[in-house]
Design brief:
Number of strands: 6
Order of helices and strands: HHHHEHHEHHEEEEH
Largest sheet: 6 strands, mixed
Helix content: 25-40%
Number of helices: 9
Radius of gyration: 17 Å
Structural class: alpha+beta
Length: 206
């Protein structure tokens, strides 16, 4: 598929189904794009679609099947849009740091990947009541083929990334801040069932 050069072309891209629950259109919404009038259109739609399918099929669908509806806060970003967001301090990392992350159609030094910032709606309520973000992190660590996870205080939103060569680390801006686990840490090997059993029972998804 060529990069859309018309509204009709962008409409067709938006109709591409990435998984049973998600279409490409779900991944293109951006407040930066809307407010500043910068198009959020992939340079290489076929590559963005392939990376997005891996993200949705392997990570987003299993989470939604287990916990109920998830909300996409930020997913694909075009290089132009991400560069503007970074230069204007709009919570976007540099393009280089977002290749194979938010910029799905550009590889990093290790290959292709895709990342989305999401909220697990039911878990946001659990987090608001308990302050516990780690139980979901450990659940994903044990059950899903993620590459990176990064948790944020608002709504317990988090970045979840798929990659051809997964890094397998979890970090957080929520207390305790920093790295929860990575491959070199003793706590990396599982299972970690005891860390999320209470959460699963509270959400009635055990």
């Amino acid at each position: 598929m060529r990069k859309p050069g018309s509204m009709k072309g962008l409409e067709e891209l938006g109709r591409v189904r990435l998984s049973p629950s998600f279409f490409m259109r779900d991944m293109l919404y951006s407040e930066i794009s809307n407010f500043y009038g910068i198009p959020n259109i992939p340079e290489n739609p076929d590559r963005a679609i392939e990376s997005g399918k891996q993200l949705c099929e392997n990570l987003l669908e299993p989470l939604q099947q287990k916990f109920g509806r998830i909300s996409i806060r930020s997913a694909y970003r075009s290089p132009q849009l991400n560069k503007f967001g970074n230069e204007n301090k709009l919570n976007c990392a540099s393009n280089k740091n977002n290749y194979a992350r938010h910029i799905w159609d550009m590889p990093d030094e290790n290959g292709y990947g895709a990342l989305a910032t999401i909220v697990v709606n039911a878990y946001a309520d659990y987090y608001a009541a308990t302050g516990d973000w780690q139980s979901l992190a450990w659940y994903i660590h044990d059950r899903l083929p993620y590459s990176t996870l990064y948790f944020y205080p608002k709504l317990c939103a988090f970045n979840i990334g798929w990659h051809e060569h997964p890094e397998r680390w979890i970090k957080s801006f929520i207390t305790p801040k920093g790295t929860l686990t990575k491959m070199s840490m003793e706590n990396h090997e599982g299972p970690h069932t005891a860390k999320y059993d209470t959460m699963l029972k509270a959400l009635a998804v055990d």
